[in-house]
Amino acid sequence: LTIIFRNFQECVEQKMYHAETDDLPAAFADGSKNGGDRYGANTLRVVEKVPGQHVEIQAKYIGTTIVVRQVGRYLTFAVRMPEEVVNSVEEGETQDLYLCLHGCPANQRIDFQSFRARAAEATQSASRTRGGAGTHGFTYKSAKAKCKERLPVEDLYFQSCVFDLLSSGDINFTMAAYYAFEDVKMLHSNSNRYHIYEKDALSSAAQRGKNVLLVLVLNLLAILLWSTAPL
User: Fold this and answer.
1) Among 81, 90, 220, 74, which Cα is nearest to 161's?
2) 214 vs 33, which has greater pLDDT?
3) Are 187 and 214 in contact (CB under 8 A)?
4) Amino acid 83: pLDDT
5) Coiled coil where (predicted)?
């Protein structure tokens, strides 16, 4: 995961944060923990919450907070960013770097409803023939039960948890989905919008407000863990 903070007037110098599995640093790539030597340097800083597991990057000069975590062998991140910053892409810039604006390319997206239906059918078939679990050790029913332990509401975070358990069998994805929801509660100012449901996903994405909460959880196997997000 690479995040680039650009040189900003007399406030901060350009900084890059880079994290890899088992290497979640508490500083920028140059070893510094703030925006440099300029007057507003402390409006950009890296704060270590849990060593090796949880880092928060505060970019107050652009009203942005980024939460980076390692859960098991995977990196996740969540971003709270003002709408005007989200939409401030300059003409001619490389558009495909902006995950916050465009999400996953269409050819990398997975129809979860179809996947869920196939998983349920495979579970029934396995029960009839072997009486056992699916390929990765979870049936649709057991994956739902495991996710329910941490995520009692069946929203998109819950559905993401179920998908990941069925796809990988890696129990760490339960915690990845749980922390994604915890980050939403920490970053979002409106408790009525914590939960997102399948039927609301498209309409919610179209809504405009003073701030846009962008939660990008890289916990699906189809999504690359390496990304670059210039700010």
Assistant:
1) 220
2) 33
3) no
4) 82
5) none
Q: At CB < 8 A and 24+ separation, what contacts does 83-86 make?
A: 83/208, 83/209, 83/210, 83/211, 83/212, 85/231, 86/212, 86/214
Distance CA 210, CA 197 (A): 22
Least Cα distance to 3 among 61, 74, 71, 55 occurs for 55
First to last CA, the chain: 14
β-partners of residue 69 are 54, 76
Mean pLDDT computed over 80-99: 67
Report yes or no: 145 and 158 within 8 Å, Cβ to Cβ.
no
Please write the tens of the pLDDT for every residue from 177-189.
999 999 988 888 7
Identity at 127, one-letter amino acid code: S
**Confidence bin at 66 (pLDDT 50/70/90):** very high
Give start and end residues of each alpha helix (H) in 83-213: 83-86, 99-102, 112-129, 140-150, 156-168, 172-187, 201-206
Residue 167 has what pLDDT? 84
Taking CA atoms, 39 is separated from 9, 34, 35, 62, 196, in Å, by 10, 11, 9, 15, 40
Q: Name the pairing type of β-strands 44-50 and 15-18.
A: unpaired
Question: What is the predicted pLDDT for the residue at 59?
Answer: 94
